[in-house]
Amino acid sequence: MCAFEHHNSLSIGYVALKKSQNSLERRCRRLPRRTMAAVPSRFLLVTGPPGVGKTTLVMRVFETLRGSHPNLNIRGFYTREVREGGERIGFEVVTLDGRTGPLSSCKVSRERMRHNEGIFQPSRKIRPEGIEPGSWMFDEFKNFCNLDILTHTIAFWFFCSPESVRWPTVGKYKVDVASLESLAVPELQVKEETDLFIIDEVGKMELFSSAFFPAVMRVIESNIPVLATIPIPRQGRDIPGVARLRNHPGAAVFTLDTGNRDTMRDTICSQLRSLLQKR
């Protein structure tokens, strides 16, 4: 065989091999899409800007499913505004069976603070010597602790007054951690008879509770469908706990806006019905 014929034979073989490789790659790329379509995610996350209607959407989905499947065992909670004279003064937690409790308020009475005093018992000496409120070191540490929720929580435990530890603040609101843990956290107990969990929401206020996020993770790692809401990143920065949920490999994230609310509800209802039929 001459050199030209040998080179031509190698070229033909290379082209055939390349075609076979491309065909295999196309088949492999198609396989995950078919698998994902056949097995929809059981962890549904709704996100969107404040006031867009995340809670309204979740409650409409809940009412739709309860209307079509009255025997479903749905556990969880949602949050709603508390208003006084047209002004929002806080938020409250509402369980799906109708029980309510305060989540946060800008009008927390001293009596309520004293009532919850026995629940959190941090040491009176919780600031290292030399770092006192008003000092430059204290101010520098507070600026550093604005980075994320973890350092913010550390700041409360080590540098703030005992009252601030029991009643952390988000903006003008004081968060009632004890109320959240006594009402919402028990609703997140994983039980075999539960068909669906609804969690509205996993946000900055809720994450001040050391018991809340582990309870959420146990729910997600169970085999029970979950519908939850999370806030959007603020100024491009996500709360670490929220980011962990958003990036969870089993999560399907739905971004809500004013133009897709109706279609989003139908999509989520359809996906949950499909999941519930397989249980």
TrEMBL record:
InterPro entries per the UniProt record, alphabetical: Nuc-triphosphatase_THEP1 (IPR004948), P-loop_NTPase (IPR027417)
Keyword entries, A-Z: ATP-binding, Hydrolase, Nucleotide-binding
Entry-linked SUPFAM superfamilies: P-loop containing nucleoside triphosphate hydrolases
Pfam families, sorted: NTPase_1 (PF03266)
Keyword presence, Lipid metabolism: no
Gene Ontology molecular function: ATP binding; ribonucleoside triphosphate phosphatase activity
Protein name, UniProt field: Cancer-related nucleoside-triphosphatase
